[in-house]
Design brief:
Radius of gyration: 20 Å
CATH topology: TIM Barrel
CATH superfamily: Aldolase class I
Strand order of the largest sheet: 7-8-9-6-5-4-3-2-1-10-11-12
Helix content: 25-40%
CATH class: Alpha Beta
Number of strands: 12
Bound molecules: S-adenosylmethionine, iron/sulfur cluster
């Protein structure tokens, strides 16, 4: 197979995020909130912040679950189909593969998929992003199957706030998962925290102290308009620069030189007195689209060339209709050619994608 995945802006794709399910056992407010009331929690909270008098919540707030439909199983790619697409993408230059979702550990037998992906020659880095709730029962099998790295999402160290943000009483489970990942030799173990003004920004220093103590890589992520409730507001985003300012007094942060890898999403700092590391991912306030080398494959077999793509390219007709590897490679090359120059958050013509982060695969 010839060629690499290069777009019309000269960017070469090296990183593929593979979503294995659109389902999730958590209901994070910024991704897949459970009820209209939950979806509106930070809207009213933010109005309260802007306005010193308590905001009046919209009268029609409801605790009825938000209606959502999962994709039927028949539309979800099988492990064989996923492995085939990844093998072809790796032939075309992809080196890093991240298994994600929805919650990837909800997909039965995901360690078998990890095992198949780990065997593809050319996969240099195989990682997973998880909310950690089901990690304990699957960790050893994943490690054995060849998973190198794992990132846990943990937005709060306070049990009540964790529950508010994720819709689940799951803090202890994630902490156990992090401990186990370190014991099993996953390296590095990363923790991702989405920061939302008025919700968990007061926990920024606590989370860094935790990373220092536990020698973890911590990533703060700016809240992006990819929530199913479409409640995102710019005022809820805590810009990366502000996060850094809030930490400078307490922590001695030594910048990590990332010039060798300009496609990295995080700006990074070493945390003095620890093997831990701080990263800030600031796609809203400091977009890094110019160096983007990422592609996404959704659980239902759609190729996305950008988190914020407004169109997706279905690979299933070729996968299930007798298309050859070369047909699939041509489609990948062609779609990558048209990769968007960048997202338009904050611009007048920004349009939020139809699907939320849980469907796209973060
Ligand atoms: N369920 C897994 C988890 O939460 O780790 C994997 C999928 S989740 C969609 C992947 C990552 O996307 C998580 O780290 C999550 O915090 C992040 N994410 C979800 N919605 C987001 C949003 N609106 N803005 C920024 N990050 C978001
Ligand atoms: Fe589920 Fe992850 Fe989205 Fe939270 S961020 S709702 S855990 S997919």
């Amino acid at each position: 197979m010839h060629g690499q995945l290069q777009d019309s802006h000269g960017r070469v794709m090296r990183d593929l995020r593979v979503s294995v399910t659109d389902r999730c056992n958590f209901r994070c407010l910024y991704c897949l909130p459970e009820t209209e009331e939950a979806a509106n929690f930070y809207r009213t909270r933010y109005d309260g912040l802007r306005n010193p008098t308590p905001a009046n919540p919209p009268a029609n707030l409801s605790t009825t679950p938000i209606h959502r439909e999962w994709k039927p199983k028949s539309e979800i790619l099988s492990f064989e189909e996923i492995t085939r697409v990844v093998r072809i993408a790796v032939d075309l230059g992809i080196e890093k593969v991240r298994v994600t979702g929805g919650e990837p550990l909800l997909r039965q037998g995901v360690d078998r998929l990890v095992g198949s992906l780990a065997q593809i020659p050319g996969v240099r880095d195989l990682a997973m992003t998880t909310n950690g709730a089901l990690f304990g029962s699957q960790a050893a099998a994943l490690r054995k199957a060849g998973l190198n790295r794992v990132s846990f999402s943990m937005d709060s160290l306070d049990r009540d706030n964790f529950r508010k943000m994720t819709g689940r009483d799951g803090l202890e489970g994630v902490l156990d998962g992090i401990r186990l990942a370190r014991e099993l030799g996953f390296h590095p173990v990363k923790v991702n925290a989405v920061v939302i003004r008025g919700m968990n920004d007061h926990e920024i220093p606590d989370l860094v102290r935790f990373a220092v103590k536990q020698n973890l890589s911590l990533r703060f992520i700016e809240f992006m308009p990819l929530d199913s409730s479409r409640a995102w507001q710019k005022g809820l985003v805590v810009p990366g620069r502000e996060i850094l300012e809030r930490l400078r007094g307490e922590f001695n942060l030594q910048p990590v030189d990332a010039s060798a890898n300009p496609s990295e999403t995080a700006r990074r700092w070493r945390l003095e007195g620890s093997e831990g590391e701080l990263g800030i991912i600031a796609p809203v306030s400091e977009p890094f689209c110019g160096h983007c080398n990422r592609l996404r494959l959704t659980a239902d077999g759609k190729l996305r060339t950008c988190l914020f793509s407004l169109d997706e390219h279905d690979l299933k007709p070729l996968l299930r209709g007798g298309g050859s590897d070369e047909d699939l490679a041509s489609l990948l090359r062609d779609r990558v050619q048209h990769k968007e120059a960048g997202h338009k958050i904050g611009q007048a013509d920004f349009v939020q994608p139809q699907r939320s982060m849980s469907c796209i695969g973060g």
